[in-house]
Amino acid sequence: MTTPDALPTSGPDHGDHGGPAGTAHGTRQEHGRTLRDDESVWDARYAELDQVWSGNPNLALTVEVAGATPGRALEVGCGEGADAVWLAMEGWAVTALDPSGVALARARAAAEAAGADVTWLQGVLLDVELPEGGFDLVSVFYPALDLEDDPVARLAALVAPGGTLLVVHHAEVDRERALEHGFDPDLLLSPAMAAAELRELDGWSVDGPEKRPRSVTGGAGAHHHDDLVVRAVRTR
């Protein structure tokens, strides 16, 4: 998911690769705010442009994965697929998840063009069946994960012993702009919240949030210049 202020007319920003990681379907009221995260809404947003994001992998991902032994990776909120394709080309066995069929069609095309093998799943985190402890890397960039759905517990359960959970969001979010687009950042998972909750769990080593430059030159999220990065390793 998502700092909620970068898609051309509405919705959250998913950085260089795009893709909401929402945990529930439909338009609904939460805490007096309307949250819109169903498939049709995301499809409409992606359909506004032939390409929303830059097509390049996120810098924080390439830095964190550099030198790691490839294993099984889950990309939550894969959008148009740049991160998933990059991981696959680096030798990872990648599963990539997104609610938007429009975004996934573009992701599949990008993977085919690159010769990358990726398992694409359409849906949201809580609704898709995924193996507990099944991934050596779980990557979550710019997530729109509702706090009431306990997303940290769900994400942590997917990481294999010795594996890494990487949560990255923008360092600054324009809350008023986000509210205009139907998203309240105060109700969504942030890096600080993710780090705090992970530190409460047994068997995790947590670094961050660390502020880092994004180095993005194109796409709808290019106006964001810094990220907050959380790297958590499941130690047992």
**How confident overall, as mean pLDDT?**
80
* Helix content range: 25-40%
Distance between the termini: 27 Å
Domains (count): 1
CATH topology: Rossmann fold
The assigned CATH architecture is 3-Layer(aba) Sandwich
Q: What is the H-and-E element order?
A: EEHHEHEHEEHEHHEE
Radius of gyration: 16 Å
| Quantity of strands, as a count | 9
CATH homologous superfamily annotation: Vaccinia Virus protein VP39
Strand order of the largest sheet: 5-4-3-6-7-9-8
CATH class identity: Alpha Beta
Count of DSSP H/I helices = 7
Give the CA-based shape: globular
- Range of strand content: 25-35%
Walk me through this protein's architecture:
By secondary structure, this protein is of the alpha/beta class. The protein has one domain (27-234): Vaccinia Virus protein VP39 (Rossmann fold, 3-Layer(aba) Sandwich), CATH 3.40.50. Helix content is 26%, strand content 26%. The protein is built from seven helices and nine strands; from the N terminus they run ββααβαβαββαβααββ. The protein has helices at residues 39-47, 59-65, 82-89, 101-114, 151-158, 175-180, 191-199, and strands spanning 27-30, 33-36, 72-76, 93-98, 118-122, 135-141, 159-170, 204-213, 226-234. Strands 5-4-3-6-7-9-8 form a seven-stranded mixed sheet, with helices on both faces. Strands 1-2 form a two-stranded antiparallel sheet. Helix 3 (82-89) runs parallel beside helix 4. The model is unreliable at 1-19 and 23-36 (pLDDT under 50).
